[in-house]
């Protein structure tokens, strides 16, 4: 959804794909198409990669980013996406509130702990 939104906001498709190629990850294809979902027009991005059974761990992702040809600023921001804790969120409704404590995105299994408490 994010890739399609970036293109819909005006990021040029070719320039975007060229930046992804700087990661030196081969055998991928990104297909962008306009779709209509319940009367709402959107850009859909379909990423095609060869099937593999390997799961990438944080250190592997960091190595891919650090070994890439991306600028140092982009590398730092990309790694921060995987390591910086997400902000705590509080949602209040008339009868209850949801308090969320977020972990870094690379945390295994559940990445958000939520509790529901009655409002006073």
Structural overview:
There is one protein chain. The protein is of the alpha+beta class. The chain folds into 3 domains: 1-52, no CATH class; 54-84, no CATH class; 89-118, no CATH class. 31% of the residues lie in helices and 30% in strands. A 3-stranded antiparallel β-sheet has the order 3-4-5, with no helix packed on it. Strands 1-2 form a two-stranded antiparallel ribbon. Strand 1 (29-37) and strand 2 form a beta hairpin. Residues 97-103 and 107-119 have low confidence and may be disordered.
Number of continuous helical runs: 4
Strand content: 25-35%
| Tally of discrete structural domains | 3
Strand runs, count:
5
Terminus-to-terminus distance: 37 Å
Largest sheet: 3 strands, antiparallel
Structural class: alpha+beta
Biggest sheet: strand arrangement: 3-4-5
